[in-house]
Amino acid sequence: MSAILRPKRSNFTFKFLPFLKSEYDLTTDPERPICQFYDGRNINSCPNGLNCENKHVSSMFSNKVVCKHWLRGLCKKNDNCEFLHEYNLRKMPECLFFTKNGFCTQGNECLYRHINPQLKIPECQDFNLGFCRYGPQCPRRHVKREICPLYLFGFCPAGRECDNVHPKFNVSIDRLRIKSDTVRRVEDSNQNSSLEVEEQGMDIDR
């Protein structure tokens, strides 16, 4: 019975396998281990590169999305699968039908995630700071939020977790209206010296 449920894959051979192995150095063994040196954030992290016999799994998908083949009972990798083998609605894969057509025939009963295409567009950092010179023609997403009144008064206890916007104004130090005591003293002395020079000039003219 076990031979029927879990047959040995080594007994199945295809004519194109030698070509893939010789030309591209590829192996189709799903049970090969995951490379311990490969890091999805750095392509050159594995010393063997593309010639590595182990699997190179991207970190952005590793154990973060439910395996779509496992949901249908068709995953052959078992414990070696880089995707999740558990029923988690928060980590379900994206619904391809909804992504392609903008709607899903199953509606709210669909088990896959319906992601708004607008949410995939990255936010415009210039707009978040207060102004975007491209306006409506900007290819990035402009998210309108309310400015935090507590932040405008000087302090917001929520910090980065605040739901409102904390605008960052690029103001140079020279343009600040509040000046230090040393700057005031220097300016006062310069004004006094200029007044003395003008008075001396007026005395000479007389």
From TrEMBL:
Chief place of localization: nucleus
Cross-referenced SMART domains: ZnF_C3H1 (SM00356)
Bias kind Acidic residues: ranges: 196-206
Localization in the cell: Nucleus
GO BP: mRNA 3'-end processing
Keywords, sorted A to Z: Metal-binding, mRNA processing, Nucleus, Repeat, RNA-binding, Zinc, Zinc-finger
Name of a matching Pfam family: zf-CCCH
Residue intervals of the C3H1-type domain: 29-59, 61-88, 89-117, 118-145, 147-169
Keyword Zinc: yes
Zn-finger region bounds: C3H1-type: 29-59, 61-88, 89-117, 118-145, 147-169
Region (Disordered): 187-206
GO cellular component terms given for this protein: mRNA cleavage and polyadenylation specificity factor complex
Single GO MF annotation: zinc ion binding
Record's function text: Component of the cleavage factor I (CF I) involved in pre-mRNA 3'-end processing.
Record family assignment: Belongs to the CPSF4/YTH1 family.
Protein name: mRNA 3'-end-processing protein
